[in-house]
Amino acid sequence: RMRVGIIHVGAPAGGMNATTRAAVAYCLSRGHTPVALHNGFPGLCRHHDDEPVGSVREVQWLDAENWASKGGSEIGTNRGLPSEDIEKTAWCFEHYRIDALFLVGGFEAFKSLSELRKARRDFDAFKIPMVILPATVSNNVPGTEYSIGSDTCLNALIDYCDAIKQSASASRRRVFVVETQGGASGYVATIAGLSIGALAVYIPEEGISLKMLAADIEHLKRSFAKDKGQTRAGKIILRNEKASKTYTTEIIANMIREESGGRFESRFAVPGHVQQGGTPSPMDRVRAVRFGVKSLQHLETYVGKSKDEIAADPMSASVIGIRGAK
Q1: Which of 90, 116, 154, 186 could be joined to 125 by an S-S link, Cβ 3.0–4.6 Å?
Q2: What is the pLDDT of residue 79?
Q3: What is the pLDDT of the chain when averaged over all its residues?
Q4: What is its main location (predicted)?
């Protein structure tokens, strides 16, 4: 029987709670003890011995039972990495007898796992099986094509853009420049752009150049010159928040307004954290549960192995994910 540490790292994403609930249910049914490490690694290091309640708590079924449909993260999450205080992290793992670690989070969780694995040379406490379940709206975790939370984010973003488009089509001849999240990955902007029929999508992989902007503004002028009736409805341009430091969403909207010669107008909109969505989408919840159980089954394969055997196995620090259809 193991004491399984469950920790959330990075920004909140839809499905984190569903996956934690599934993990807790699986642990309890198999006789393991699920231990929630609240508020990420900084929470673990700073508040593990707080009175009356510390940040390291065993999870009972009644605590987690109603988490299935909750968005965000019930046990708290932040972007802090273990390297901020690796000695304290190791001490906590030893002190609370953590036998396996289940990380849920985005790119920061991936970095944390990498740091813990490298720290095995100096600390025996990290010679335990660790698995990360990718959960981030950005879908930018190496080793997988799908991160939990990205589907919820796309649903929220598409609803938002449809509402904006409606407002634009009522007033006719308006362009909206919408800023999307997604970190340094253009996934969210690209897929949302295809889904809502955006006129252009600016992503960090390609960056933004004056030439591109000029070409897109020319295209706008042409399409507004020929429009009749309903085709005059609003047009949308999507821009990932990190696509360019210079060409901000507002500046692009102003350039379009300036170049339009009064034929059409432009506005900018920033949905911000609306994109994290309310209730996680069905796809995120189904995959959260499926991945959560599979991750714990993987951790269970290390029961009874010595610390050095675990450290020697490259699969003892791994990412669960989807490649193609597997």
Answers
A1: 90
A2: 93
A3: 92
A4: cytoplasm
pLDDT of residue 171: 65
CA distance 260 to 175: 10
Residue found under tokens 């047009």? 235
CA-to-CA separations, 187 to 62, 160, 238, 311, in angstroms, rounded: 37, 17, 12, 34
Burial 32-53 (b: 16+ CB within 10 A, else e): bebbbbbbbbbbbbeebeeeee
Reply yes or no on whether the pLDDT at 1 is more than 60. yes
Q: Is it the case that residue 230 has pLDDT exceeding 70?
A: no
pLDDT tens for each residue of 60-82: 999 999 998 899 999 999 999 99
Q: Measure the CA–CA gap between 41 and 57, rounded to whole angstroms.
A: 14
